[in-house]
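Hey,
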Amino acid sequence: MKVACILATHLRARVEMRRQPHLKDRPVIIVDRSRGRPLVIDHFPAASNVAAGMTLEQALSRQTNGAVLEADESAYRREFHRMLLSLQRVSDRVEAAELGTAYVRLDGLEAMYGGEARLVTTLLNAVSRNLAPRVGVGESKFPAYVAAGTSQSMGSVRVPPEVAHFLAPHSVDLLPLPTAAREEMRCLGLHTLGDVAAMKQEALINRFGPEGQRAWELARGIDDTPLVPLEHEEPVVEHASLPFTSASLELLLTAVDTLLRKTYAQPRMRGRYAGGATLECVLYRAAPWQKDLHFRRAVGDWQQASRILRGQLEADHPQAPVEEVTLSLSGITGDSGTQLSLLSDLRGDRERRLAEAERQLQARMGSRPALYRVVPVAPWHPAPELRAMQVPLDPSGAGEMRPLSLPSPVSVREDPQGEPAAVQLGQRWQKVARVEDRWCFDLWWMPQPMTRNYYRVGREDGGEVTLFRDQRENRWFRQDP
């Protein structure tokens, strides 16, 4: 068996450095308090005097200027899960070990990727560079793991034919044994794998039992542990860029509903159910935001999923303006886990009738979205085009959300005070008979700042029109509120 070990060391620290880049060069200690006594589970490079497994008191006594971060194991697991999914796109034989460690069976894949070197490069490129992955290749799992640990970031090491000689100088701490067993080995003078391999097998078995036999075999490069692949799971993913960067929760909820409709409309989801969802947001001048949700029962329609996600997002949502949203459904299954209702779904029937009407209209209009629903997202907003969105009715179509009441450029003649005196409508100029109302706003703090002076004017033909001067672009626009 030829196997590759993909190793992302200090995964927890790398996740935190990406989330909080301002702490990157500080001696940060990551602490887990879930077992009662706070223990160090990882640290940033600057905290060089600290090691995993220390108590917090020990760590701070060695690193007196250390800053403490509480562990966020769910975030670390999510990152590891993404790493595994990326590797599964390269091979269907991927095994997850401890956090940051994965194994891939290589037999038969070299020909597909043009040789072992290209296959290893593909595996490295499949993992985020932020995790600084490294690869070890060997004929069994433990030697490949040791080889990965000796490699440089984004590099690889191949175990040589003399496996025992290659393993000999490495520490017994690499052995997958209980901490107490490794400490006892060091007390007996067994500090390296070579020391363990030089012992008589019977002596180690007498002292350590089955763990002694396992240590002796691994130290000599004997590892017949099979690779147990994960079940391959390809999440159902949809992505949307918001029409404008906004902190409006209702706009985010509208985007989530739109993405839910699209994901559940995919052919892969017909008659199937999702066990959970992941929502990722790209924020304006802030670190990316992510939320994982696990459904108590598998969900087979977007409306039910929407109710769950809305409840969660109303309690916990991004605190910075959102630019992009990505939704992933996971845990796809053919079983719902719930009893089907015997009552007719009136709302669902109406949705299906409207969707069928939309498809017929699209057939006549060249596949362009024909029907939209209007969704208020920020009715309080002073800019009319940011108050409501048009959302395509057909979830499987290519249409995106788009704002209503978009302003259009217009030619205006100004009076000496800079107010509109005449406006060109079509090919004709019409005089402004009177100014019915004036108002202005200056939203300088927004991601796309707005400074506008509005005028609702009466034309000489008796009609009315709303104009505004964009003070930042020094241009006139017409807009219907």
